[in-house]
Amino acid sequence: MTPKAETVGPSSAEALAALHARCFPHGWTAREIGSLLNLPGCIGLACRVDGQFVALALFRQALDEAELLTLATEPDFRRRGLADIILTSGETRLCDQGVARIFLEVSEKNPAAAALYKRAGYGEIARRKAYYRDGSDARVLEKWLRKDGQTGP
Predict the structure, then answer these.
(1) Each residue's pLDDT tens digit, 118-140
(2) How far, CA to CA in Å, does 152 sit from each of 31, 73, 92, 93, 142?
(3) What strand order describes the sheet that includes 42-49?
(4) Which residues are catalytic?
(5) How far apart are CA 100 and CA 76, in angstroms?
């Protein structure tokens, strides 16, 4: 059975932080994730396998724009389409809420994520020099969800 993206809230912050820590060298804390999920316009999505969170995404909407704050997939579950499921679900939901475009940052040292975003239609619009703790640059990407009167991604 293919996992589905489900909405998650602050009550899931501990489990989401544990997942985030397994995916990134400096994972976000439960307090940070919980605080974000309490903000108006913040959407949390996750996929579960056997009851455990294996992928997550946090988006923040402001008017007709949104930012993908983080997208993480459990290392043992990568390359199974979970990131695609969550990203597409988030884009659809945001488009339904009137979002015209989404921004994100991805490390130049993360070619797998960059490839995912390219396949999904994101394009580079800028770079942030030495943005990450390891000194790597961030590639700033965007995707237009609504173009020329379209009403969906």
Answers:
(1) 999 999 999 999 888 888 999 99
(2) 34, 26, 7, 10, 16
(3) 6-8, 42-49, 52-62, 65-73, 101-107, 138-144, 123-128
(4) 105, 117
(5) 34
